[in-house]
Amino acid sequence: MKGFARAAAAAALTSLVAGHSIFAEFEVNGVSAGKENALRLPTYDGPIEDVTSQYVACNGGPNPLVKFSPNVVDVPAGAEITARWIHTLDTDWRTGLIIDASHKGPIMVYLSKVSNAATASIPSSGWFKIHEEGYNSGTGKWAVDRLIADRGYKFRIPTCVAPGNYLMRVELIALHAAGNYPGAQLYMECAQINIVGGGSLSPATVNFPGAYSGSDPGIKFNLYTSPINYIIPGPRPVTCGGTQPTTAATTRTTTTSARTTATTRTTTFVTTTRTTTTTARTTTGGGGGGTQSAWGQCGGIGWTGPTSCVSGYTCSVNNAYYSQCVPA
């Protein structure tokens, strides 16, 4: 019995850590700044689940920050940034696991102006959002799906952001266990950048902790309902030349649409004020045909896909809403 208990505990731990990830490299207009360069990194790839934690700004605490790069990377205003996420610091983003495909959710980017990005203490105040992407109802894809497919996540620095040193907070929220709080897994790291050029934008800011609460519909969310109506947490991204966004996030849902030009791809976020009531299914998943692949979902409330796993894997229950194929 003791051997079985140890094996079960090991399988459960494996299923939890399989999707962990770290933002550990970035590119500026297609040029890499270098792996682990100009970043504040933990040695552990785990999430923060307590949105009231002091560590929700740039990670730390349960994932101790031990790698502090002395460098600051120049970034032109308007530049395209590619954030490279990897499963662990030993993973190669070109060939290795980025994050498990079951860890669906949004990706957001914040900036906080500091005097010296290489030496500044991690601020709790002064953060403003420059980018967000959640669920695209047209494609049925999440931002994390795009990250996995592209092996990197692209966004732009607004052209009107004032020049100077910033901490750039890139955040992924995995929602596979977010039906209860705590449950959503927040993965964030901060890069040290110096914005060159730009404008004179002085946006409204939020605090970390403070920008999110455990009851926010983007933090406590049942991923396994249909249709999906997801509200991205926090303020809306800043805009150049328009009305600055507010932090209100309770009366709108977000969808995304891609607009393509000859040279660049711009993502436009459409905001509406529809209030949609979604009724969750309360039956456990039962019986989709076929066999699920390694690390894929194999059960949970509302699940209609495969409930058996490929050879060598077994279906392990994480919570009422999510079971995963893990090594037998």
Automatic annotation (TrEMBL):
Residues 272-283 have a biased composition (Low complexity). Its EC number is 1.14.99.56. Residues 272-291 are annotated as: Disordered. PROSITE patterns: CBM1_1 (PS00562), CBM1_2 (PS51164). Its cofactor is Cu(2+). It is found in: Secreted. GO terms for molecular function: cellulase activity; cellulose binding; metal ion binding; monooxygenase activity. It is an enzyme of class 1 (oxidoreductase). GO terms for biological process: cellulose catabolic process. Residues 290-326 form the CBM1 domain. Residues 1-19 form the signal peptide. It catalyses: [(1->4)-beta-D-glucosyl]n+m + reduced acceptor + O2 = 4-dehydro-beta-D-glucosyl-[(1->4)-beta-D-glucosyl]n-1 + [(1->4)-beta-D-glucosyl]m + acceptor + H2O. CDD domains: LPMO_AA9. Keywords: Carbohydrate metabolism, Cellulose degradation, Copper, Disulfide bond, Metal-binding, Monooxygenase, Oxidoreductase, Polysaccharide degradation, Secreted, Signal. GO terms for cellular component: extracellular region. The keyword Signal applies. Lytic polysaccharide monooxygenase (LMPO) that depolymerizes crystalline and amorphous polysaccharides via the oxidation of scissile alpha- or beta-(1-4)-glycosidic bonds, yielding C1 and/or C4 oxidation products. Catalysis by LPMOs requires the reduction of the active-site copper from Cu(II) to Cu(I) by a reducing agent and H(2)O(2) or O(2) as a cosubstrate. Belongs to the polysaccharide monooxygenase AA9 family. PANTHER family: ENDOGLUCANASE II, PUTATIVE (AFU_ORTHOLOGUE AFUA_1G12560)-RELATED. Has a modular structure: an endo-beta-1,4-glucanase catalytic module at the N-terminus, a linker rich in serines and threonines, and a C-terminal carbohydrate-binding module (CBM). This is AA9 family lytic polysaccharide monooxygenase. It comes from Drechslerella dactyloides (Nematode-trapping fungus). The lineage of its organism: Eukaryota, Fungi, Dikarya, Ascomycota, Pezizomycotina.
